[in-house]
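Can anyone check this?
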Amino acid sequence: MKKVFLFGILIASGGILLAQENNESDTTELKNWSFSGFFQQNTNQVSFTNWAAGGENSFSLVSQARFDANYKRDDTQWENYVDLAYGIIKTENTSLRKNSDKIDVFSKVGRNLSEKISMSALINFQSQFAEGFNFPNDSVVVSRFMAPGYLTGSVGFDYKPLDFLSIYVSPATGKFTFVSDQELADQGRFGVQPAEFNEAGEKITDGQNVNPEFGSLVRIALNKEIFTNVILNTRVTLFNNYTDSDVSNRKNTDVDWILDLNMPVNEFITVTVGFHLIYDHDIKIPKMGTNEMGEEVVLYDRPTTQFKQQMGIGLVYKF
């Protein structure tokens, strides 16, 4: 309850900053808002006929959309975005499966303390749309919407030394990990407390569906055209949990690093290269292998670095 109360204070702090601005004017002038966004459709198709070197026919489709709404008036700024992605891939010898899935909703409000420093509050929600599997095993669900789901809220200070660079530091951050799928929660996936079983294998108590954490957060975001028609958009988020019951784990820092390179060919065609690196000490990744009998078994189950890379060319519509 103490952690929930602290998280409530964080959200309320953001509301206070907004309320101060609303008291100055009953209506928000549209000129103080700026809106932007894009929709991008990437497609990749490979086909082989009598190809001596071999190969496998494949088709993939990735849809991405982002919408930004930013407010600025006097000493108050409010940044908002919704970032969505979903992709599928089909090869000749495999069934249709997803290769991209993202829901990312972000809001940060701040009031200037000086030209480059503001007191800010942010809230961020992340999850996915559809079920995930650890292929080639397509019979066991390893993730789904709100399993996991992440909700982060914090208050801190935002330092903007340059227009394209933001360094946000918060000593008071609440992070909640949700696992709504009870079977996954019973396994203790994504850091929640697992279920308890007796010697007969019967479940005594359900696994927890929420893992609350309270700690510090650093978020560094950069968006800049580094070369002609090459735009770098990167974000690094670091979180350290003050309240981990295992004292030895408090030195571990969660890392979430996203890097995207956008290279417009013309007004409607863009080449994109993306990287995503995650390390969360609470998330254990199973390593599969075979035993002496040739049976597939879990060799070990431990935290490790997660990495995803994507590259595509597709149609883009900006507004």
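Reply from J.R.: I decoded it. Residues 9 and 275 are 34 Å apart (CA to CA).
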